Amino acid sequence: MSDSVVRVLLPAHLKTLAGVRGEMKIDVAGTVSAASILDALETTFPALRGTIRNPVTGQRRPFVRFFVGGEDLSHQPLDQELPSSITSGDETFVVIGAMAGG
Amino acid sequence: MSGVRVLVGTRKGAFILTADGTRRDWKVEGPLFGGWEIYHVKGSPVDPQRIFASQSTSWFGQLIQRSDDGGATWQPVGNDFVYDGVPGTHQWYDGTPHPWEFARVWHLEPSLDDPDTVLAGVEDAALFRSRDAGATWTELSGLRGHDTGPHWQPGAGGMCLHTIILSPADPGRIVVAISAAGAFRTDDGGGTWRPINRGLHSEGIPDADAAVGHCVHKIAMHHSRPDVLFMQKHWDVMRSDDAGENWREVSGNLPSDFGFVVDVHAHEPDTVYVLPITSDSMHFPPEGKLRVYRSRAGGDDWEPLTKGLPQSNCYVDVLRDAMSVDSLDKCGIYFGTTGGQVYVSSDEGDSWDAIVRDLPAVLSVEVQTLA
Questions:
Q1: What pLDDT, on a 0 to 100 scale, did the predictor assign at position A1?
Q2: In what order do the strands lie in the sheet with A4-9?
Q3: Is the CB of A47 less than 8 angstroms away from the CB of B61?
Q4: What angle do CA B37, B261, B38 make, to 5 degrees?
Q5: Quick one: which of A31, A78, B42, B238 has the fewest CB in 10 Å?
Q6: Are B339 and B364 in contact (CB under 8 A)?
Q7: What's phi and psi for A29, nearest 5 deg?
Q8: What is the pLDDT confidence band of residue A101, given thresholds at 50, 70 and 90?
Q9: Per-residue pLDDT tens digits for B141-174
Q10: Domain map of chain B by residue range?
Q11: Are B295 and B302 in contact (CB under 8 A)?
Q12: Phi, psi of A86 (to 5 degrees)
């Protein structure tokens, strides 16, 4: 399977950490899922390792959520294939930090 | 010309304060890592240009940042803090078993002789070591694996390993302190550990004289006399003259013996500084007066140091890693408050000035004395 180009939007702190501005495009190998997008992100930007998912368990960090087209996909399995609107580039994979004060 | 670099960790970033040896005119840089909690920033005593910082948030977890140019530029290094083996459980606040879970790095202690080696004290309490300047971390699991581990329990701030003291006389000796387990010592470089809490008395725990369970807030040592340790416990200021084998109370005439910080004068091993806090629930200075107390006798007899510090309506706290000393002549004393002030005394505590007044809440203060 060829690589897909996926649009990703990170929260401000993680954009700073990765040294990027605005929305980014990233090559994702194989089936496009939250896990494969995070694999690609962490390979391209090693500083992001551990910031979105637990590096040991691989689980999404509790204060982080994933949205596509306004739909909350945070609670589906990380390796579940994402909607075709992601691979087509019509929608962005949005990583959001919970509104939790401070 | 000599100078000082003050490394300040706050709730919302790090700041670097620099001055020449007069310590009068200060340059303030920051925030670095703005918006992140910076629990601790500390430089290598071997290579002062190498500085490590603990950066974390509840959202995005733990990062370790390293600078090799005195804080001008930084790079994230390794952040895999993986407990050795099956982590097991410790005691939760209600006495039930609770899984050991990594939360953050509270304290970074660079090696006394190798700029690539640094220790990290973490929550839930454990000690990690990196030998490659922070790229990878390995737990010194003999500590957490001590027989008493399942009985350790968190203090109000979490079950944190917040104090790491390296002995300049014995490379194998390390003293650590954990809230609320107590003090522990290794004499074999971290392989095996034992509690060193004899003489501590804590009325807030079921057995006031227990081997573990004491909420030690901070321990300080003078490099010339590594067997003498000073401790600020939850309540009580304590002293040991035998590397922690036995402790005796030296609170003496302090207005309150609750507090967090303790430190030792750079040139006078019996001159000790504490900052009394009213009580375990009233985390502000007694009577609203911000007073550092100094003992020139190694404890028991304390004098208030007030010149330049607010003596009315002051209700800030000074957290456990937020006091430090420089090694200039005269010795400089520094502390930061939860109100965002960082104070300096360039005359051993006789008088004080605020370097800055409006930072985010200060979590830690470390000073580098630069040639």
A1: 61
A2: A24-28, A4-9, A92-97, A64-68, A71-72
A3: no
A4: 10
A5: A31
A6: no
A7: -85, 140
A8: low
A9: 999 999 999 999 998 889 999 999 999 999 999 9
A10: 3-370
A11: yes
A12: -75, -50
Kindly report the backbone phi and psi dihedral angles of residue B171, in degrees, each rounded to the nearest multiple of 5, phi listed first: -60, -20
The distance of B279 to chain A (nearest Cα, Å) reads 27
Can you list the domains of chain A with their CATH numbers?
4-97 (3.10.20.30)
- Shortest distance between the Cα of B95 and any Cα of chain A, in A, equals 25
Here the ipTM equals 0.89
What is the distance between the alpha carbons of residues A69 and B317, in angstroms, rounded to a whole number? Answer: 46
Quick check: A99 pLDDT over 90? no
Q: Which helix (H) or strand (E) holds B303?
A: strand B303-305
Query: Would you place residue B371 in the very low, low, confident or very high pLDDT band (cuts 50, 70, 90)?
Result: confident
Question: How distant, in Å, are the alpha carbons of A8, B103, B121, B158, B335 from that of B215?
Answer: 45, 19, 16, 11, 21
Residues of chain B positioned with their CB less than 8 A from the CB of A56: 80, 82
Homologous superfamily (CATH) of B3-370 is YVTN repeat-like/Quinoprotein amine dehydrogenase (2.130.10.10)
Whether the per-residue pLDDT at A100 is higher than 70: the answer is: no
Q: Do the chains contact at A52 and B80, CB–CB below 8 Å?
A: no
The closest alpha carbon to B256, from B208, B317, B197, belongs to B317
Mean pLDDT of B250-263: 98
User: In this complex, is the C-beta atom of A50 within 8 Å of any C-beta atom belonging to chain B?
Assistant: yes
Residues of B in contact with A61 (CB under 8 A): 59-61
pLDDT at B233 over 60: yes
Q: Please check whether residue B121 is in contact with residue B105, taking contact to mean a CB–CB distance below 8 angstroms.
A: yes
Q: Would you call B59 and A100 a contact, using CB atoms and an 8 Å cutoff? A: yes
Helices (H), B48-104: none
Q: How confident is the model at residue A55 (pLDDT cuts 50, 70, 90)?
A: confident
- Are the C-beta atoms of B59 and B43 separated by less than 8 Å? no
Res A57: pLDDT: 87
Phi then psi dihedrals of residue B320, to 5 deg: -65, -30
